[in-house]
Here is the input.
Amino acid sequence: PLYVADAADAIVAAAQGQEGIGGRTFDMQGPQTYQQQELFEELCAVMRIHGRFVPMPHAALKLGAAVMSKVVRKPLITADEIAVIDRDDVVSGEHEDGLAEFGVTPTPMEAVAINTLRVYRPPSLFYVIASEDEEHIEREMHARLSPPDHSRVRHDYELDVARKTR
Here is the structure.
């Protein structure tokens, strides 16, 4: 998965006009590739959902989606989503690496998934903080609450007082 901020950084760098990028195609992907099952398991782990995955034949999925789209106003899955599941969406490698070309370091999914997916946790677990989250929160809180070091900053008033006392 590609973090949207990384894609945005690459697009901004391209728009700011490096010479020789016009008409070229770039591949962009995150630092790690996942199988569909691995991705679902990782997302469920972050959301603290303990679901079971049941393998189903593709024909049964298509039939179920067709029936649901006729019977239910907002179906759980549509035929279009099933068609997307079948497609391989890993970059081909035919084109240049867009992130490297524009100097963007890809962000791992594990580093940002908690920020997006925490709201999808069951209500009873919404405020539960895992030990790995506690460390991140502690570092962030320390960085935000530590007083900034302004010892080298000089204000015009201080200079005027220093001149008058001489």
About this structure: The chain has a mean pLDDT of 78. The first helix runs from residue 4 to 15. The beta strands are 26-27, 96-97. The two ends are 64 Å apart (CA to CA).
